[in-house]
Predict the 3D structure of the following.
Amino acid sequence: MPVVHVMVWKGFSNAAKKRVIEGMTRVFTDLGVPAEAVEVILHEIPKENWGVCGEQASERLKQVQTP
Amino acid sequence: MPVVHVMVWKGFSNAAKKRVIEGMTRVFTDLGVPAEAVEVILHEIPKENWGVCGEQASERLKQVQTP
Amino acid sequence: MPVVHVMVWKGFSNAAKKRVIEGMTRVFTDLGVPAEAVEVILHEIPKENWGVCGEQASERLKQVQTP
Amino acid sequence: MPVVHVMVWKGFSNAAKKRVIEGMTRVFTDLGVPAEAVEVILHEIPKENWGVCGEQASERLKQVQTP
Amino acid sequence: MPVVHVMVWKGFSNAAKKRVIEGMTRVFTDLGVPAEAVEVILHEIPKENWGVCGEQASERLKQVQTP
Amino acid sequence: MPVVHVMVWKGFSNAAKKRVIEGMTRVFTDLGVPAEAVEVILHEIPKENWGVCGEQASERLKQVQTP
């Protein structure tokens, strides 16, 4: 059943992607949902396409690293 | 940064909602993302609006419980 | 694989929901995707929450019927 | 062309919905996009289904009003 | 009215995209919805960004072809 | 609170992106929502992935410019 859409900044490492997919799935298996039923979809968004506080994250949060 | 949309069947208990929100947030804090940056949005979908294998979950998965 | 989110006006009949779920799934099975892999999620949106041309559909498209 | 999905807390007044739909559409008409091409879809989310900082908004932001 | 978001693996052929767009639209015209009202948006997701059963589809479903 | 997902055709200029982010945020600050609470996420969709009236926008709306 559950479908999870995760919006993150572009540039997540493959290791971070694996951890997000595993971790989100485990949240549901801990609730008794079978792992086969869980789909996790990562949407990588360029920082210039993400607005925070009315500004592009590429400007406002220039120094913040993507995991 | 991260925004997480979680689609589940209608009828999740409040305890299950809390666990989903906490668990999804922890996946990101474990990666070094501050908790304040994580938004989790639960979309509760009636089983008759969820299609699996070409059929409504309300028919095909009638006996499956929502956590 | 495919996950399909369908946004429609609130008030679709159960027969119309079935036809949407069957039809969307068949589009993929016709392409060789197994039916078990297809999830279709119907989001019913009240007409006052749907904006067309800068106006609520509940006003602008008052006379249009939902199937 | 543009389709805008707006996630807000449940309980927006009809006046606020109108202003969101008008305002979002005007952002695009100001860029030369015809109003007929703009669709705005408001998703109202109960505060207990919205997680901020690992907690339900219904608890963490109990006193914050919905416009 | 209807807006359809279709999430598929990256790499769909142009012919497959056309068939998805035509097929999804026909589901609604068969219900009496005018074709002009139907918008279909295809989101192509890299297999390493799609989690199934807690694993990346790029690993778990390595041998499965995209149509 | 609000999270806004904006689907547009690929190719928006950086100036247009800024205006969308500023404009959408202002719609909410005008309603009394603090700017810090508003997240705007732009999804750029290639025209061949956008179906209008059963056809790809890359064919049907070939001559329409992206702002």
